[in-house]
Design a protein that fits this description.
single chain, 336 residues, alpha/beta, Transferase, Pyrimidine Nucleoside Phosphorylase, Chain A, domain 3, Pyrimidine Nucleoside Phosphorylase, Chain A, domain 2, five-stranded mixed β-sheet, two-stranded parallel ribbon, 15 helices, globular
């Protein structure tokens, strides 16, 4: 392949798909700043219209991982995050789950960003809670060891994506880049609970993570949300022990009551931060139940719970015993 995208664009124009190796080289050209904006836009839309393949996702992620600013993390570290893009404006669920897991001694390398498709992203709510999300990158591994959790601010770890920023904004539509973030955790975690905005991407993303060495992951979508919801049925695709399976999980499976999505509608960062703080101090209601549900799934993925019912019970002890709140306080102190 040449050092521009013309040859690969010619192939894509005929409907060809790319091998993982070709996709890695093509996205390497983009992320190295060697492609023109028109070439980038052409590649992204050719893939979008035809439909991206697992091989193309795998190659793109490999190119992204090769250029990311990585950090050291324990072998049992986990990530809980979503693709975004559900436009639901809910309270911050995965950020709250981070502290629940950390309180149980599970290292969480939380990959995230500021608000893009939501009103308040993980970085926004953490900032409102007094956590410094701009801590020097050389200190992040130590923060993770001390607090059992750390926030990995995506733009700082994936600077190479800036070369595609202009075309992505001008296109104004979903491209393969919307799927790559949760697949390229800077701590190279091997266990993940990942929400997807569209359930049709759950299996391809699970297969991609499996191809790249993931031990166990759940790709989840619940009633329009990129996370598990207590509002109804949730679609799950799991990668585990080299195999993929699909199933449905409900709040009743975790021993939790149902509540509408509107019950966890959020707002600006101070509003969401206040709700998260209240939750960690024991506030009951649909927000707590949603966090317990997602934490339960993460505990299954971490091999700390047999099923989501046992996971929800264990997650509740982290909140009710004060360990989850202590994890937040430790993270605040370690990032000061």
């Amino acid at each position: 392949m040449a050092t521009n995208l013309k040859p690969v664009l010619a192939r894509l124009a005929t409907g060809e798909t790319l091998s993982a190796a070709d996709a890695e080289e093509a996205f390497g050209i983009i992320m190295s700043g060697e492609a023109t904006p028109a070439q980038i836009a052409g590649l992204l839309m050719a893939m979008r219209v035809r439909g991206e393949t697992v091989a193309e996702l795998t190659g793109a992620v490999q190119a992204m991982r090769a250029r990311m600013l990585a950090i050291d993390a324990p072998a049992d570290a986990i990530d809980v995050c979503g693709t975004g893009g559900d436009n639901a404006g809910t309270l911050n669920v995965s950020t709250a789950v981070t502290f629940v897991l950390a309180g149980l001694g599970i290292p969480v390398a939380k990959h995230g960003n500021r608000a893009l498709s939501s009103r308040t992203g993980g970085a926004d709510v953490l900032g409102a809670l007094g956590v410094n999300v701009d801590v020097p990158t050389e200190r992040l591994a130590a923060v993770l060891r001390a607090a059992n959790c750390v926030f990995l601010f995506a733009p700082r770890h994936h600077a190479a994506l800036r070369h595609a920023a202009g075309p992505r904004v001008e296109l104004g539509t979903r491209t393969i880049f919307n799927l790559l973030g949760p697949l390229a955790n800077p701590a190279r975690v091997r266990r993940q609970l990942t929400g997807v905005f569209d359930p049709r991407w759950a299996r391809p993303m699970a297969e991609t993570l499996g191809a790249l060495g993931t031990t166990r992951c759940w790709l989840v979508h619940g009633e329009g949300l990129d996370e598990l919801t207590v509002a109804g049925e949730n679609q799950v695709v799991e990668w585990h022990d080299g195999a993929v399976r699909s199933f449905i999980v409900t709040p009743e499976d975790a021993g939790l009551p149902r509540a509408p999505v509107a019950a966890i509608r959020g707002g600006e960062a101070p509003v969401n931060a206040a709700a998260l703080g209240a939750l960690l101090r024991g506030a009951a209601g649909p927000y707590r139940d949603t966090v317990l549900f997602n934490a339960a799934a993460a505990l299954v993925i971490a091999d700390r719970a047999e099923d989501v019912r046992a996971g929800a019970e264990l997650a509740a002890t982290s909140i009710d015993g004060g360990a989850a709140l202590a994890a937040l306080e430790t993270l605040r102190r370690e990032t000061a």
